[in-house]
């Protein structure tokens, strides 16, 4: 693909806008609350767009679109189940987290259980951010550069890492959410444009549905190796509930809300946007299969092939800028959250000799951010040996999610679950998942379900044997107003009904 002058101007202008707005918005970050939680002042529209922009990236437009090319619409379950998960986060989890005034999700585990539970989860999250999340996003971004412009994989990785790392190191969460706003709008608009042009290329909406009827089903056979319909019973809920509710780089936006009502509005706004993602991402993958068949070769290149073929000169630069921005949007979010966990959960809690100043905490966060960028850039090119990148990232996260979800959910539901039970659950979840998935070959989402069930049984057995004498009192920090949004419950209910309706239509 050759860049026209218009492509180059639009790309450079877009990137300059993102970096300039981000640095300007975060020019007064001095305290750790400013740097890590944007001063707890985010409004609902920033939260909603930032949640979606941080989530969707080239792992979607490369990885998920590629799975649409291979499997069809069934992969959309990850997006539509996320809607229900987000409703649960808005109505059940967020009020508890904001009431406690926490900076990080591991911090909540210390209040509920003990310092060991906090340290284990913090360690897990940092490893996963670098090995799975950051490395995966960098790899798919560099693959995009390679596919479209022939940029060397290693060079592309370091270029993306350096640019995203630079303004994240400087500006913290406020820089991240403002870059997310610009990049999220551009990415959703670009995906919509490719989908519309794709419908024209395949002969219209009716022709698309008629020709691809076999790929427009949500249910795959029970013996399917990757996504059998049985995962809808429990397996797919494990990563969705954990990712959207217990994942620092996602939840951090809601923790930075001006108040509970703004946080709930933002999360429910994000849930509404998530309903559209399969149409903007999975449909183009199916269109690529219809138009090109085996010509695409690597399924991860399906969306890029379609984009290169359909977009006219000038708009290619805009879409490329949106994809490039999507990489930075996800990467900057992960970097900021990983540095938050390192600084608040490990450095300040365990390693600082005395209570560090606010300025020192910000400095440690910036050093951690830069370090994470370097490590992720070293690891990212090696993922070319790991097969389908979307499967790799999902399977990697499922090593920790069953134990984490069990510790949080049972800790909320049963006040007398002791800290020892939570720590055991966090630790045994990893080898259990490895046994079910890698040892006996269970599909990874069903392996996550089995791991969650066994982990939960062990946690409950320990709780029955040695329950807490008295429930631990969680802090009442009063950091923000806790009056819920008046229409949150009916809106959440409506979103769940729409999601169920989509399953009925496409089952």
Describe the secondary structure blueprint for this structure.
Elements: H1 5-25, H2 32-37, H3 44-55, H4 58-71, H5 77-100, H6 105-112, H7 115-149, H8 153-201, H9 205-211, H10 237-246, H11 248-255, H12 260-274, H13 277-292, H14 302-310, H15 315-351, H16 358-379, H17 389-397, H18 401-413, H19 419-439, H20 444-465, H21 488-506
Helix pairs in contact: 1-8, 1-15, 3-8, 3-11, 3-12, 3-15, 4-7, 4-13, 5-10, 5-12, 5-21, 6-7, 7-8, 7-15, 7-16, 7-17, 7-19, 8-13, 8-15, 8-16, 10-18, 11-15, 12-21, 13-14, 15-16, 18-19, 18-20, 19-20
Task: Please provide a written account of the structure.
With 507 residues, the chain is an all-alpha fold. It folds into two domains: 326 residues, Up-down Bundle (Sodium/glucose cotransporter), CATH 1.20.1730; 71 residues, no CATH class. Helix content is 74%, strand content 0%. It is built from 21 helices and no strands.
| Span between termini | 38 Å
Query: Which regions have little confidence, pLDDT < 50, spanning 5+ residues?
Result: none
Roughly what is the average pLDDT, rounded to an integer? 82
Tell me the structural class.
Answer: mainly alpha
Largest sheet: none
Count helical runs. Answer: 21
Q: Briefly, what CATH class of the largest domain?
A: Mainly Alpha
CATH superfamily of the largest domain: Sodium/glucose cotransporter
From the 3D coordinates, which CATH architecture of the largest domain would you assign? Up-down Bundle
Overall geometry comes to globular
Oligomeric assembly: single chain
Rg result:
22 Å
- Say what the CATH topology of the largest domain is: Sodium/glucose cotransporter
Q: What is the number of independent domains? A: 2
| Helix proportion range | over 70%
Q: Sketch the topology as an H/E string, one letter per element.
A: HHHHHHHHHHHHHHHHHHHHH
Q: Give the strand content.
A: under 5%
The count of strands amounts to: 0
């Amino acid at each position: 693909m050759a860049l026209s002058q218009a492509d180059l101007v639009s790309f450079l202008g877009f990137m300059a806008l993102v970096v300039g707005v981000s640095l300007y918005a975060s020019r007064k970050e001095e305290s750790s609350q400013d740097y890590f939680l944007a001063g707890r002042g985010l409004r609902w529209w920033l939260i909603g767009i930032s949640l979606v922009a941080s989530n969707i990236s080239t792992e979607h437009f490369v990885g998920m679109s590629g799975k649409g090319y291979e499997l069809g619409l069934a992969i959309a379950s990850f997006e539509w189940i996320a809607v229900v998960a987000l409703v649960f986060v808005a109505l059940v989890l967020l009020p508890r987290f904001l009431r406690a005034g926490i900076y990080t999700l591991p911090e909540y585990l210390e209040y509920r259980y003990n310092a060991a539970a906090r340290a284990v989860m913090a360690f897990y999250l940092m490893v996963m951010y670098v090995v799975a999340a950051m490395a995966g996003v960098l790899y798919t971004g560099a693959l995009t550069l390679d596919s479209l412009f022939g940029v060397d994989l290693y060079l592309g990785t370091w270029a993306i890492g350096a640019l995203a790392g630079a303004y994240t190191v400087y500006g913290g969460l406020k820089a991240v959410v403002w870059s997310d706003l610009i990049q999220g709008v551009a990415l959703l608009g670009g995906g919509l444009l490719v989908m519309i042009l794709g419908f024209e290329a395949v002969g219209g909406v009716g022709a698309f549905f008629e020709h691809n009827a076999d790929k427009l089903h949500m249910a795959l056979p029970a013996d399917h190796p990757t996504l059998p319909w049985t995962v809808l019973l429990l397996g797919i809920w494990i990563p969705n509930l954990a990712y959207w509710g217990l994942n620092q780089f996602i939840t951090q936006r809601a923790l930075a809300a001006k108040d509970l009502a703004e946080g709930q509005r933002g999360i429910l706004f994000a849930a509404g946007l998530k309903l559209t993602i399969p149409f903007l991402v999975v449909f183009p993958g199916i269109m690529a299969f219809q138009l090109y068949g085996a010509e695409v070769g690597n399924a991860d290149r399906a969306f890029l092939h379609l984009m290169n073929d359909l977009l006219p000169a000038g708009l290619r630069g805009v879409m490329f800028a949106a994809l490039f921005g999507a990489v930075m949007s996800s990467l900057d979010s992960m970097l900021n959250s990983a540095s938050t966990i390192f600084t608040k959960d490990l450095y300040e809690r365990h390693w600082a000799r005395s209570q560090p100043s606010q300025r020192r905490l910000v400095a440690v966060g910036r050093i951690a951010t830069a370090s994470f960028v370097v490590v992720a850039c070293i690891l990212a090119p090696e993922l070319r040996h790991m097969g389908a990148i979307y499967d790799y990232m999902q399977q990697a996260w499922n090593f920790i999610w069953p134990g984490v979800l069990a510790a949080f959910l049972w800790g909320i539901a049963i006040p007398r679950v002791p800290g020892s039970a939570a720590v055991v659950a966090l630790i045994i979840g990893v080898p259990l998942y490895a046994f079910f998935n890698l040892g006996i070959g269970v599909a990874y989402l069903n392996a996550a379900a089995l791991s969650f069930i066994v982990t939960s049984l062990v946690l409950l057995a320990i709780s029955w044997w040695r329950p807490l004498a008295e429930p631990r009192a969680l802090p009442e920090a009063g950091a923000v107003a806790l009056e819920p949004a008046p229409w949150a419950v009916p809106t959440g209910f409506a979103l769940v009904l729409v999601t169920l309706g989509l399953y009925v239509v496409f089952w």
